[in-house]
Design brief:
Structural class: mainly beta
Oligomer: single chain
Radius of gyration: 32 Å
Number of domains: 6
Helix content: 10-25%
Distance between the termini: 70 Å
Shape: elongated
Length: 886
């Protein structure tokens, strides 16, 4: 009996926590106020107050409580008897309880609970099912719902200044508190682009089912006619809890609503979830508008497990927060003295979840250094609590939790830590997880949020997450959730329509896929991450963020329909929202076979890397802009560079006569043998050209606009190419990398004297692509790529490269805009250039017989070749050498 009572107490303390999920934070040094996000109000159900008082509250009838007890008796009888299975008869069961959990199941092992066709309808807003200390248990088939629902919803009927009015939909209750309000597009019932989630903004009943809410943000896209969901009443979390349970399988279990998390596992590990769902349920009685919400918070949350969950073939939609979250806790360091470490747990109910013999890692917040030791003993010491409170307030003022529940640890070896640093156990954060073939859609926050290692995220669909799609990110400074990830594969997923919430400048996770952490962290602590064969579609801002990582491979991903809308996501925390891929404070990051299609007007770069990034590879050819039609590379700067005089079509120039943008201001550079300078001599040459030069792989601009002798004009070096055929063109395979100790560079692309098609500002030490579509050009048009200083030229060396591609009709192998006999001869000399069937389809001639290597043309083509007497042109030589591509 004592064991059961202890388990009940543990279940109570671990379920009486509710906090709205978010991400922000600062390190040991405070950030300027302008960089701080507004910390959202948080509701935490404290055990001594709300939870104990709610235990006495029950809206259920005696009959409903008796039904729950009857079901529980049936399950407990099977547990006591050691039966291998128990079957609950199909049917609808309205259940309630005067306790916090309606169906608390303790100590089950080697048991299958068959609940096929069972509908459990909770009539109290409490936890429906908990498994405490279970092992080798399968729970199958149940559908779980609430009546009344734990949320409300309605239509915005009026907006006036700082408030807006909502008419509650028929069939939905009103709420007495306002914790979270999410806005939906009425036409689609999807979370509305350009809106914010509102928290704790106040709520007033206007009678007749109408509510007045404080508007808070007045700049977002909230409009009359929008739908909103509202949660706010104090509730007992969660829908289904697995507490310290191992090898439990939930199969074909559906949750239509939940007071907080849908499924929550805390401790234990190696649990599996097959075809579980958290999705909106059927229309309530008297309702005509479908439900907007499923669970009030995360659909699935895993915490402190020794082996991470397997989530297979599941579906999470319309939850109020993250789709899937896996993590453990960071704990605050109070002092470190040899092998003795004093730390603070997050709260009295979180405690320290690791055990003697577990590994513990120390994270130096100032340097990012990670050290590791083995726990030898753990002792609770209340005398440490007040000191930890002071340390928390000094070093982690933005932390949601107190972090002041003191413990004294002894370790097998010292850790290099000081007050304000953090520890976490890698043995309790869900390592070994798998998430496969699962859909997460239409919700606020992150689709999949991982803080664990040795895991697989494969073949999932994430659609409509308001912050980020798939995110690997600890949150040390705000939620105190650990940790950094190692050995994780993100493969074969489709991520769509993420990061489209209004204005998230302080958010680091705003991307289709993000590897990052809270702003202010300095260590490159993520490692060995593989991101491959994913499709990222219609994301606002970056499709991919890689930050604070060492060893990331980015292979064969597709980024589609990017940057269709404006966003300032991440701009106050060093994220560039105009880049398809943003890399910052990372090393050993490689790119191969990635493509970008339909780059929108709010995107500037395929790839951009900060000066704090090193060890990039494949930044030029590893991510490419593609088109519906195939293309031919007709020119490449490095391949075509000649020392004595430029190759046909090329010119190397500088703007001696005035600002860039007007070709009349451009003067040819002169060969100096190994490069080109203003007068053919070694640099520096006379001002304002000074160090202006172009070489086979690199260059240097002239004077900046404010330097003496510059006449107020920044002097650029310019590589230009004149096309010889009409067609649609693009710059591809481009990159520019500025010298680490230099100043900034300006990169401008323009055609003839027309307005620029691309402009970029390159910070000292940064890397960026400048791939851009050039549109339809006529023979004789000239493409100019200008690279100049800003106001000052100081060590502005750069390396760069780019190609000029022409899009062609399938079968136009020589790129002259026509599909004719010349293309067949081009293909005959190099069959790898393309598919002969495409030529045949567009030329309209029967496909000729071919051999495996050098095909024999048909009689018509032999005659055509003899009449035309065709030879290789310069463009043919380029096509043969470089080939055709998408």
């Amino acid at each position: 009996m004592a064991g059961v009572q202890n388990m009940q107490k543990l279940l109570l303390t671990t379920t009486c926590q509710f906090a709205e999920r978010s991400s922000t934070g600062i390190g040991k040094s405070r950030l300027p106020a302008s960089a701080m996000r507004v910390v959202k109000p948080v509701m935490i159900c404290i055990i001594s107050l709300a939870c104990l008082s709610l235990e006495k509250v029950s809206a259920s009838t005696p009959a409903e409580r008796a039904t729950a007890q009857s079901l529980l008796n049936q399950i407990n009888a099977a547990i006591v008897a050691g039966a291998p299975s128990v079957t609950i008869a199909p049917g609808d069961y309205r259940i309630g309880s005067s306790s916090n959990t309606i169906l608390p199941i303790y100590g089950a092992s080697d048991l299958t609970i068959i609940a096929d066709g069972v509908n459990l309808i909770a009539t109290d807003l409490k936890q429906v099912i908990s498994f405490g200390g279970a092992s080798n248990v399968t729970f199958r088939g149940a559908t779980i719902d609430y009546d009344p629902l734990p949320f409300s919803q309605g239509t915005v009927v009026n907006i006036s200044g700082s408030t807006f009015d909502v008419e509650i939909h028929d069939g939905y209750k009103t709420v007495t508190g306002n914790q979270r309000v999410i806005v939906y597009d009425q036409a689609t019932s999807r979370v509305k682009d350009g809106t914010v989630t509102r928290y704790g903004t106040g709520i007033t009943s206007l009678g007749n089912g109408n509510l007045r809410l404080a508007r808070g943000n007045t700049q977002d896209a909230l409009a009359v006619g929008d739908y909103v969901s509202i949660t706010g009443d104090t509730l007992i979390p969660h829908g289904v809890l697995l507490q310290d349970s191992t090898n439990v399988t939930l199969q074909d279990v559906t949750l239509h609503a939940s007071t907080t998390f849908g499924f929550f596992e805390n401790g234990g590990g190696a649990n599996e979830y097959h075809n579980v769902q958290v999705v909106p349920g059927p229309l309530p009685t008297g309702a005509s508008v479908p439900r907007l919400l499923s669970s009030n918070a995360d659909a699935f949350h895993s915490k402190n497990t020794s082996v991470g969950p397997k989530i297979i073939g599941s579906h999470f939609a319309n939850q109020g927060d993250d789709g899937i979250a896996i993590n453990t806790d960071f704990h605050l360091v109070g002092s470190s003295n040899g092998t003795v470490l004093e730390v603070g747990a997050k709260t009295t109910y979180d405690q320290l979840r690791f055990q003697v013999g577990d590994r513990v890692r120390g994270f130096n917040v100032d340097t990012g250094e990670v050290t590791e030791a083995i726990v030898q003993s753990i002792t609770r010491d209340p005398s440490l609590d007040s000191g930890l409170t002071n340390i928390r307030n000094t070093y982690l003022p933005s932390a949601v939790n107190p972090l002041n529940v003191g413990y004294r640890l002894t370790l097998d070896q010292p850790l290099n830590l000081s007050p304000g640093d953090l520890i976490a156990s890698p043995d309790r954060n869900g390592n070994g997880f798998e998430i496969r073939d699962t859909t997460v859609e239409n919700h606020r926050a992150r689709g999949i949020l991982i803080k664990a290692s040795d895991g697989l995220i494969e073949n999932n669909l994430v659609d409509g997450s308001s912050i980020g799609g798939i995110v690997l990110a600890p949150e040390p400074f705000y939620w105190s959730e650990a940790a950094f990830t190692e050995n994780v594969i993100i493969r074969g997923n489709t991520v769509m329509n993420t990061s489209r919430q209004f204005g998230q400048p302080g958010q680091t996770q705003v991307a289709g896929i993000a590897v990052t952490s809270d702003y202010g962290w300095v260590g490159r602590n993520h490692s060995n991450i593989l991101i491959e064969n994913n499709v990222v579609d219609s994301v606002a801002g970056p499709g991919l963020i890689v930050s604070l990582a060492d060893g990331v491979q980015v292979n064969s991903n597709q980024f589609i329909n990017t940057h269709e809308i404006y966003t300032n996501n991440g701009t106050s925390v060093a994220v560039d929202p105009t880049a398809v891929v943003w890399v910052d404070r990372a090393s050993d990051v490689s790119f191969s076979g990635n493509t970008v299609k339909n780059l929108g007007s709010f995107g500037d770069n395929l790839l951009r890397a900060s000066a704090a990034t090193g060890g990039l590879s494949g930044e030029d050819t590893g991510i490419r802009l593609i088109h519906d039609e195939p293309s031919l590379t007709i020119a490449n700067y490095r391949d075509d560079f000649q020392f004595n005089s430029p190759a046909a079509g090329w010119q190397y120039l500088w703007n001696s006569g005035g600002p860039v943008g007007d070709p009349l201001n451009y003067t040819p550079l002169v060969s100096a043998g190994v490069d080109y300078t203003s007068d053919g001599s070694s640099t520096p040459t006379p001002n304002p050209a000074a160090y202006a030069r172009l070489g086979p792989e690199n260059g240097h601009p002239g004077l900046g606009s404010t330097q003496g002798g510059a006449s107020g004009i920044a002097r650029s070096v310019i590589a230009s190419y004149t096309v010889t055929s009409d067609g649609e063109y693009a710059i591809r395979d481009s990159f520019i990398r500025s010298e680490t100790n230099g100043t900034e560079l300006d990169v401008l692309v323009h055609i003839n004297g027309d307005a620029p098609t691309h402009y970029d500002f390159i910070e000292s030490g940064a890397t960026a692509s400048f791939d851009t579509g050039l549109g339809q050009l006529r023979s004789g048009d000239t493409i100019y790529v200008t690279i100049g200083p800003t106001i000052i030229d100081a060590n502005d060396f750069f390396t760069f490269d780019f190609s000029i591609d022409m899009f062609v009709t399938a079968g136009d192998f020589n790129g002259d805009g026509k599909v004719d006999g010349r293309d067949f001869l081009t293909w005959q000399r190099n069959p790898a250039i393309g598919n002969l069937a495409e030529w045949q389809a567009n030329y309209g001639m029967p496909l000729v017989a071919t051999s495996a290597t050098v095909p024999e043309p048909g009689a018509f083509l032999l005659a055509l070749a003899s009449v035309l007497q065709l030879g290789r042109s310069s463009i043919l030589r380029r096509c043969t050498r470089r080939g055709m591509r998408q």
